[in-house]
Design goal:
The complex is a heterodimer of chains A (151) and B (732). Chain A is an alpha+beta fold and 151 residues long. Chain A has helices at residues 21-28, 81-88, 98-111, 117-124, 134-144; strands spanning 2-6, 9-13, 47-50, 53-56, 69-71. In chain A, strand 1 (2-6) and strand 2 (9-13) form a beta hairpin. Chain B is built from 20 helices and 29 strands. In chain B, helix 3 (121-148) packs across helix 4 and helix 15 runs parallel beside helix 19. Chain B is globular, with a radius of gyration of 28 Å. The chains are: A alpha+beta (151), B alpha+beta (732). The interface between A and B is large, with 55 and 57 residues. The structure holds FE2/S2 (inorganic) cluster (FES) (2 copies). One FE2/S2 (inorganic) cluster (FES) sits between chains A (92-98, 129-131, 133) and B (73, 347, 397).
């Protein structure tokens, strides 16, 4: 039995500590906003927060996160400036990568509230989007940070 | 009304108290409106089914538009909802969208299949959706007029209400929907004149975006059904490989494993959890023979392509007399272009949840091709179509790859074999390995210029594997695979002598539709070589093209647009260059201008800026067009600079994003999109942005370095070597 604290809620799962965190979040707890993209840390679709820091859940076990506070896309409030900017800039296309993009952006902005263009690119560079929403992600982050945006 | 139940175009069904459900059917035959009393006479009374409906208005004031096209981020759902709402005079905030069921009534009226492809979602559904909206609007007006006992001519519809002008009385669609469902269906509901459009042509926020931002969009991977298990398949590592052995016991020992079964595709494991299923798959330790092409690898593939170039092919096109024209030409040029296999790599790997029972089958999947899913399900289960229910989920990217149904076939076979519902998700490795790639190809072109430097002859031979032959065989005429010669046999330029020869490459590597299909690859050869000819003729590449586009003003128009916006001809810093290219396909004209810089030390190509122009005729949702062109530009850049599927040991060597990198944010330049709007016939927008990207970049690299790269991807190594060679040759 392992305890997990996700989005402020305590979950008990009857699994070995070696169980993969991504699959536990998605398939056991059905918090499906967190996505599987590659399973090897290469795409960022599975990005969550551990105590506010962005982390790739596919690279973690539930044992690794014992006692830590996990946030998933479902735990970011709808009126969060990043989510609002994502809507006003019409960022998602298929949407599959977007939970990861948003989680990375939220964690990044919480540490660097007025980032430069290059800092944003550096922070977001390893989260893949096959639909090519990168220009809008950039715009939305600038908008959420109050340093830009188009609408 | 008392007419026989015939094939019909409009149909509505009133379910007690649920309101108005309206359908437009494309089954052909006479256009006959059927009201609910006919349904009753035909013995269908009281049957709780909702037929082929396109929209549903309910007393809670919600209008739900059912959409037969898959949403994979291209914005089709919102655009089609806009079209319905426009004619319906609905209040946009009352509009919802929903995936339509999979049934004959929802087939694409042009294709006769339920499929999302060929950039046709809005083009093919525009008219039927308009008529559905207009018809419902007229019925609501009738219902209001009846309610107030006034002539319907005195009533009008506006923002989700029917209003009686004289008295100012009004009722909402929700209040009227039940009554409206009792009105007989008009079949000549007038369509709005374009100048009255409030929605069509205006950028509307996409309806699917809020849920995607909240992580609530339901993709194929997000399906849960009662009793669901997880399956994983161990398929052959090489093409045609036969299973020799596997350790059933070892797999069964993994806790949570329920079944280990063989199906024609390999060995499948079914378990309580996905981790157990995947772990047990590894434990199978399956061994295979070497397969049908054990020596197939990247080098062998290049060799096979070259060998085929020496074979005689089929003449796909022959205009004028190329032989003679080449003989007479003042200047002749030859070149070979090599194009690799590329993968779709949607961020959501292919997946399918299937529940096969003795007498019924239910399937959930992110598919672009529902008709093919249904066919596979019927074939595998032996059930008739009416026993099979297919749910289309959101698609986490498609790009043509999700028109393939191998994953469905596997899931259905496994579920049937174990008699339980299974969720079957391909690992990323499987998604790369099982993809139906954009085919690699080899091109040999020879062309002639006359004394004035005009292009007078073009001889083109292409070696490539066919796609349509397998997917839509009726599109292959006289053995000519259209995707092999697209952008060659129908090039935009006026050309007196053109011959195109196609050599069919038969290989076990599966190939399929990749965003713009043959147009994603062939323009690299065509538009690069046009550039080579322009330079050989001593002409500006833009002028050279425009001279051959006098009869094609829209193609010229997009080129001029990107040239003007991209500062064509203006000075650039050393090491930088601009390139342009254009292509007309899927009903739309598109051009791209690339501005690049090249690091002479490393050979790294940096894209400084992309300027795109599209002339798609009439536009429904402009911001979605911009988004599609942005996305197409990035996917094109990714293929230009990075992508190539690798083969080895008779199978696929590529396994994940670590060995198949795609473009990341740091590599994406500023992208400027220009839409040329007019009232020409509506073209597609999902695909046409891709074709001119790759040649524009290659042409820009030439402008920056004087080096012509003729194989993809345009890798730093290749460029570095070429740069070193020119250095040494200039020194010598
Ligand atoms: S799924 Fe975790 S990084 Fe790709
Ligand atoms: S929106 Fe489709 S992968 Fe990013």
């Amino acid at each position: 039995m392992t305890e997990l604290l996700i989005n402020g809620k305590q979950y008990r799962v009857d699994l070995e500590p070696s169980a993969n965190l991504l699959w536990v979040i998605r398939e056991h707890l059905e918090l499906v906003g967190t996505k599987y993209g590659c399973g090897e840390g290469a795409c960022g679709a599975c990005t969550i927060h551990l105590d506010g820091e962005a982390a790739r859940s596919c690279q973690l076990t539930i044992g690794d996160v014992h006692g830590r506070s996990i946030t998933t896309i479902e735990g970011v409030p709808q009126n969060h400036p990043v989510k609002e900017a994502w809507i006003s800039e019409q960022v998602p296309q298929c949407g599959y990568c977007q939970s990861g993009q948003i989680m990375e952006a939220v964690a990044f902005l919480s540490k660097n509230s007025r980032p430069s263009h290059d800092e944003i690119v550096q922070a977001m560079d390893d989260i893949l989007c096959r639909c090519g929403t990168y220009p809008r992600i950039l715009r939305a982050i600038k908008k959420a940070a109050g340093t830009g945006g188009s609408r | 009304m008392n007419r026989p139940m015939e094939r019909r175009e409009f149909l509505k069904v009133s379910l007690s108290g649920t309101g108005l459900v309206l359908a437009v059917s494309f089954l052909g035959g006479p256009l006959i409106a059927v009201s609910s009393d006919v349904e009753e006479k035909a013995g269908n009374a009281g049957k709780p089914w909702v037929p082929n409906a396109w929209l549903r208005i309910t007393p809670d004031n919600v209008t739900t538009v059912l959409i037969n096209k898959s949403e994979m981020g291209q914005g089709t759902w919102t655009a089609l909802a806009m079209v319905v709402a426009e004619e319906l005079e609905a209040d946009w905030k009352d509009i919802r969208v929903e995936a339509s069921p999979v049934r004959d009534e929802y087939k694409d009226p042009v294709f006769g299949m339920q499929i999302t492809g060929g950039s046709t979602g809005v083009r093919h559904m525009y008219d039927p959706m308009r008529r559905a909206g207009a018809t419902a609007r007229e019925m609501l007006i009738q219902a209001g007029a009846r309610e107030w006992n006034v002539p319907s001519g005195e009533c009008k519809a506006d923002k989700g209400r029917v209003i009686h002008g004289k008295t100012g009385k009004s009722l909402t669609y929700g209040e009227l929907c039940v009554k409206a469902s009792q009105v007989s269906v008009p079949h000549d509901a007038p369509l709005k004149p374009q100048e009255k459009f409030r929605l069509i042509g205006k950028s509307m926020p996409r309806l699917d975006i809020p849920e995607k931002v909240d992580g609530k969009g339901v993709f194929g991977t997000d399906i849960f059904i009662p009793g669901m298990l997880y399956s994983a398949l161990q398929g052959p590592p090489a093409y045609g490989a036969r299973l020799l052995s596997f350790d059933k016991e070892a797999a069964e020992k993994i806790s949570g494993v329920q079944n280990v079964v063989t199906i024609p595709d390999g060995v499948a494991v079914v378990a309580n959890t996905i981790e157990a299923a995947w772990k047990a798959r590894s434990a199978l330790n399956a061994t295979w023979d070497a397969g049908s092409h054990p020596d197939l690898d990247d080098a062998a593939l290049d060799r096979i392509l070259s060998e085929h170039m020496e074979k005689k092919g089929l003449v796909a096109k022959n205009v004028g007399d190329v032989e003679e024209a080449l003989k007479k030409a003042a200047h002749r040029m030859k070149a070979m272009y090599l194009i690799p296999y590329v993968a779709h790599a949607p961020m959501e790997p292919q997946n399918c949840t299937a529940d096969v029972r003795k007498d019924a089958c239910e399937i959930w999947c992110p598919t672009q091709f529902q008709t093919a899913v249904l066919q596979v399900a019927m074939r595998e289960t032996g059930l008739t179509a009416d026993k099979i229910v297919i749910h289309t989920t959101q698609l986490g990217g498609g790009f043509g790859g999700k028109a393939e149904v191998k994953v469905v076939e596997e899931a259905v076979r496994i579920s049937k074999a174990v008699g339980k519902p299974v969720k079957h998700i391909w690992s990323r490795q499987e998604d790369f390995r099982n993809d139906f790639y954009r085919p690699g190809s080899l091109h040999r072109i020879e062309a002639g210029l006359d004394r004035e430097g005009r292009l007078v002859a073009w001889r083109h031979k292409v070696v490539v594997s066919p796609i349509m032959e397998r997917v839509l065989p009726w599109m292959v005429k006289d053995g000519i695979e259209p995707t092999a010669v697209d952008a060659i046999w129908d090039m935009e330029y006026s050309l007196p002598n053109l011959s195109v020869e196609y050599v069919r490459l038969g290989l076990p590597i599966p190939v399929g539709f990749w965003r713009s299909v043959g147009n994603s690859s062939n323009p690299f050869a065509v538009e690069s070589f046009v550039d080579e000819l322009a330079h050989a003729a001593g002409k500006d590449p833009l002028e050279f093209r425009l001279n051959m586009l006098k009869e094609n003003p829209r193609a010229a128009g997009v080129l001029k647009k990107v040239a003007e916006a991209g500062g064509w001809g203006k000075p650039l810093p050393a090491g930088c260059g601009r390139g342009i290219a254009q292509r007309f396909c899927f009903g739309s004209f598109a051009a791209q201008l690339a501005e690049v810089s090249v690091d002479k030390e490393t050979g790294v190509i940096k894209i400084r800026r992309m300027v795109a122009a599209i002339d798609p005729g009439q536009v429904v949702n402009p911001d979605s067009v911009v988004a599609q062109i942005e996305g197409a530009t990035i996917m094109g850049l990714s293929a230009a600079l990075k992508e190539r599927v690798s083969f080895g040991k008779g199978g696929v060597a590529t396994s994940n994003f670590s060995d198949y990198p795609i473009l990341t944010m740091a590599e994406v330049p500023e992208i400027e999109v220009h839409i040329i709007t007019n009232n020409e016939k509506m073209g597609g927008v999902g695909e046409p942005g891709v074709p001119p990207v790759i040649p524009a970049v290659a042409n820009a690299v030439f402008a920056a370095t004087g080096i012509r790269l003729r194989s993809l991807p345009l890798s730093p190594n290749m460029l570095k070597k070429a740069l070193a060679n020119t250095e040494s040759s200039t020194e010598a």
